[in-house]
């Protein structure tokens, strides 16, 4: 039976990298029916809103979206369209895998790293309750909100993710020695959840120590779970260990739907020039295929893309090559035997 997926090509380089990705998925043995929808600046121009009801209805129906980068137009009534979608569907789990690409030179090239950061995406330090205190903005304060429910579901998600992806260990990151209540609650709930998963190893590390360990011995980690702010920082750190944001995908997952995207933005400086690197969005598509239980085809797509990137000959300018988006994609298709 075919699986329906909402497709949002997005703004800036979005249409180019998405076209490349669709060509590659088209060469796989998968049965996907795309429901193409609009969002972002393009939607605002055509339909007068950056987030049409129809787009939300489609995601609600399919439960899965592959999304290009979106620009939030000024005066559209949204601070960020991306955040608005996450909020609308309560996409509480942000998943950021960092996997080494053989052949890509990094400081840890010899280690074959494969880490995943799972970040709580709806609470913590990012709830947006902040204000300054008079006179003259002499002070400012901000609220960190950690709930038992929010901690429980993200920790459970991390362990379920570990099981589903055959991973051995979950490491919980906290700062409960200083933030005794907020980080303390997260740690307490994390321990309770960990007790229910005898098959997965569990440990906990204080966030500052974790930063040091990640840049000295990153190979000892597997799945990492944390609250919003620490997760934000750690996920960029782990991206840096394997070659940067240009090759890193992300997923935002909720109870009823999942949205897959690249970590980078719309790159307006190179949009429309055929120069964009589609690797990150292709890796997001690989995550999406795994989510749809097309594991074998996901692996084929990942390996073909990694081969071309690792060889370094037919890669785009950001990776030091001179290939166009299309030439890179042709090389991936050749690798697939298509
Ligand atoms: P946004 O406001 O949507 O976040 P941005 O201007 O911050 O857009 P980013 O997409 O975050 O741009 O990119 C920052 C830099 O990295 C830009 O110079 C951009 O050209 C480059 N870049 C980002 N993504 C890619 C890509 N996929 N391929 C090539 N270069 C990229
Ligand atoms: Mg940006």
TrEMBL record:
InterPro entries: IsoCit/isopropylmalate_DH_CS, IsoPropMal-DH-like_dom. GO terms for molecular function: isocitrate dehydrogenase (NAD+) activity; magnesium ion binding; NAD binding. SUPFAM superfamilies: Isocitrate/Isopropylmalate dehydrogenase-like. GO terms for biological process: isocitrate metabolic process; tricarboxylic acid cycle. SMART domains: Iso_dh (SM01329). Keywords: Oxidoreductase. Gene3D superfamilies: Isopropylmalate Dehydrogenase. Residues 4-332 form the Isopropylmalate dehydrogenase-like domain. The keyword Oxidoreductase applies. Belongs to the isocitrate and isopropylmalate dehydrogenases family. This is NAD-dependent isocitrate dehydrogenase. It comes from Persicimonas caeni.
């Amino acid at each position: 039976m075919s699986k329906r997926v909402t497709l949002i090509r997005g703004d800036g380089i979005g249409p180019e990298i998405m076209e490349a990705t669709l060509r590659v998925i088209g060469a796989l043995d998968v049965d996907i029916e795309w429901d193409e929808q609009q969002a972002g600046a393009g939607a605002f121009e055509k339909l007068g809103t950056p987030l049409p009801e129809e787009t939300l209805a489609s995601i609600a129906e399919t439960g899965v979206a592959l999304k290009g980068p979106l620009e939030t137009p000024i005066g559209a009534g949204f601070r960020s369209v991306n955040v608005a979608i996450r909020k609308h569907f309560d996409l509480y789990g942000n998943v950021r895998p960092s996997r080494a690409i053989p052949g890509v030179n990094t400081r840890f090239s010899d280690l074959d790293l494969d880490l995943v950061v799972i970040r709580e995406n709806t609470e913590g330090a990012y709830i947006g309750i902040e204000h300054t205190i008079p006179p003259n903005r002499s002070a400012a304060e901000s609220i960190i909100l950690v709930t038992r429910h929010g901690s429980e579901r993200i920790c459970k998600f991390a362990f379920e993710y570990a099981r589903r992806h055959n991973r051995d260990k979950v490491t919980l990151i906290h700062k409960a020695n200083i933030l005794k209540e907020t980080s303390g609650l997260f740690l307490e709930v994390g321990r309770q959840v960990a007790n229910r998963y005898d098959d997965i190893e569990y440990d906990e590390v204080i966030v500052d120590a974790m930063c040091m360990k990640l840049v000295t011995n990153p190979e000892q980690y597997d799945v990492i779970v944390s609250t919003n702010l620490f997760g934000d920082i750690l996920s960029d750190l782990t991206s840096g260990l394997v070659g940067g944001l240009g090759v890193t995908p992300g997923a935002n997952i909720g109870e009823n739907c999942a949205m897959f995207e690249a970590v980078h933005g719309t790159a307006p400086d190179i949009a429309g020039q055929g120069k964009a690197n589609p690797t990150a969005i292709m890796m997001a598509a690989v995550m999406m295929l795994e989510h749809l239980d097309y594991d074998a085809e996901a692996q084929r797509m990942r390996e073909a893309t990694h081969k071309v990137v690792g060889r370094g000959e037919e890669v785009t300018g950001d990776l030091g090559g001179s290939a166009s988006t299309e030439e890179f994609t042709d090389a991936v298709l050749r690798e697939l035997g298509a």
